[in-house]
Design a protein that fits this description.
81 residues, mainly alpha, globular, HTH_62, Recombinase-like domain-containing protein
């Protein structure tokens, strides 16, 4: 008997790419996502890196203020990330 899983199994559930979304992302959300991808790639993954990377690129918090660790955590919670 083989221990390799059957990859042709049709019983696997179908996963839609954005199945947890309840709306299309706003322009703000698209810009934030694109900037976060750039920051993760070029600056780092630590929270301090992310906050400083967003601020350096002038992508501000929803209230227009520079990001803080607390405001970033709150926004990610609000967005469901």
């Amino acid at each position: 008997m083989s221990s390799t899983p059957n990859t042709a199994n049709t019983d696997w559930p179908y996963l839609e790419t954005h199945q947890s979304r309840d709306h299309e992302p706003s322009p703000y959300e698209y810009k934030l996502a694109a900037t976060l991808e750039e920051v993760f790639t070029k600056v780092g993954h630590e929270l301090t890196d992310v906050v400083s990377g967003l601020n350096a690129r002038q992508v501000h918090a929803p209230d227009g203020a520079p990001w803080t660790e607390e405001s970033f955590r709150a926004e990610m919670h609000r967005l469901g990330a």
